[in-house]
Amino acid sequence: MADTGLTISRILHAGYVFECEDVRIAFDTIFENPFSRNCHAFPDVRFDRDAIRAQRYDAVFISHFHDDHCSLESLDLLERSTPLYIYCIFDELFEMVRMLGFTQVHSLTLNLPVHVGPFEVVPREAMDADVDSMFQVMAAGMNVLNVVDSWIDEDTLAKLVREGPWDMVLWPFQTMREIEVLAPSRAAAAPPTLPEAWIAQLRALKPRYVVPSSCQFQQEPWSWYNRAFFPITYAQFAREVGAALPDAEVVRLNPSMSVRLDATALQPAAPLPWVIPVGDQDVDYVYEGHAAPPSTADIAGHFAALTDAQHARVMDYCRTGLPGKYGQVEAASEYFDEPRIWQMSLFGSAGEVTRLRYRLDAESAVLVDADAAPLGWTTEIPAAKLYAALDNGESLTSMYMRINDTVFDPDTEAALALADVVDDPLIRSLFSDTFGAYQAAQLRRLLAR
User: Strand pairing partners for 269?
Assistant: First the structure.
């Protein structure tokens, strides 16, 4: 194949457009800011939605079903005849996309190539093959690995090394602390360096160019997560990877930026005109480790008060829905195999709090008196966020839950050392056996237009 070069453009987060010989394909097409409810583009951008509607792609590839990669509101901007290739083990997602009107919806199979004009795209196995995938993209003699959100296990790494040499690797450069911020008083500070596995794997892949990829967002401007969620800066990534791979070049691609990759060089190319930068684009993350988080009452004050009907929905779930659901899902650890008293605190927009206590065992959750003791688990959440999870399918990372932010009796503290934060009773009841709640809520809104 003639080496005509490959153009790679950044949309946002894990989104890219690849172009070769007038054929255009795209990956994880998110055209929203914020996306996934409270992920605000960092650096900031806006989108020309009319211009996006005019775009045509020969194929769109989606790595997995998480709402920051597969959003029906973004897909709604695409021409319905666009071939969509989605990696997902759940049939429900494909049905939702078809209900949106797409006529060419295909399920990706690991290691089975998809050919689109000069492109060969091969979905590769991610660390959690039940959830996500990676992409190997070949065109114009170039070989690019889009790691998306994944970590790479050793078996897959060995296979990828054999697929080399690699011209470019799009590497997910953040170790997002989405679990640690749920229980900040119990979490250890992030290590001051990149994970050792990253450096070893990048050395094994030996790419010519490394793009810090996948994470280009922050939460709401007021959010304490912005200094606790993202421990790695672009500067740190470039410094450590550059030192470890002296023959590679670390290239930052902000939203809209494009580059032209060929056998001899990487050159700037015309940016995507429908991704419009806003303000300074060379911003970087700031991590403050154990900076004290605000109270859940203060956080709740940033959200609108629930209407009477919305409040009733939340309380009905707490009194009926949650107890009915709790026994249907299993915990990952043994902490809840014996009876525990759980306190859930719901905070309103004016700081008011409603506290509910439950007696939990392995199979049931039963409301008990407000003074039932001893406490064995606590959960705090803004009531508006619980409603958003119930009505809009909002995901855990944007709900501002606070777990076990207290000191229990010594026996309970000792037992908690072996418990998993995501065994939280509310997390289990909301998320353990549900799929696509966010997309289902989007579909309802889109079809109701």
Answer: 258
| Residue carrying the six token digits 């700031």 | 286
Question: Residue type at 79?
Answer: E
Cβ contacts of 158 within 8 Å, gap of 6 or more: none
Burial string for 60-74 (b: 16+ CB within 10 Å, else e) reads bbbbbbbbbbbbbbb
Amino acid identity for residue 24 in this structure: R
Convert the pLDDT of each residue in 109-131 to its tens digit.
999 999 999 999 999 999 999 99
Q: With bands split at pLDDT 50, 70 and 90, how would you rate the model's confidence at 137?
A: very high
For residues 277-316, one letter each, b for 16 or more C-beta atoms within 10 angstroms of the residue's C-beta and e for the rest, the string is beeeeeeebebeeeeebeebbebbbebeebeeebbebbbe
Tokens standing for 212? 């810090």
Confidence bin at 290 (pLDDT 50/70/90):
low
Q: Tell me: pLDDT of 326 over 80.
A: yes
pLDDT of residue 4: 76
Helix, strand, coil shares of the chain as percentages rounded to 5?
30, 25, 50
Q: For residue 376, give the nearest of 345, 325, 410 by alpha carbon.
A: 410
The domains located in the chain, with CATH, are: 6-277 (3.60.15.10), 296-447 (3.30.1050)
User: CB within 8 A of 51, min separation 6: which ones?
Assistant: 273, 274
Q: And the tokens for 173? A: 């450069």
Determine the 3-state secondary structure of 106 from DSSP: strand
Residue 331 CA to chain centroid, in angstroms?
23
Which helix (H) or strand (E) segment holds residue 403: the answer is: strand 402-403
Which distant-in-sequence residues (6+ apart) come within 8 Å of 402 by Cβ? 182, 183, 184, 293, 296, 379, 380, 381
CB 137 within 8 A of CB 123: no
For residue 40, give the 3-state DSSP assignment.
strand
In sign, the C-alpha dihedral spanning 253, 259, 261, 266 is negative
pTM for this prediction: 0.95
Residues 150-167: b if buried by 16+ CB within 10 A, e if exposed: bbbeeebeeebeeeeebb
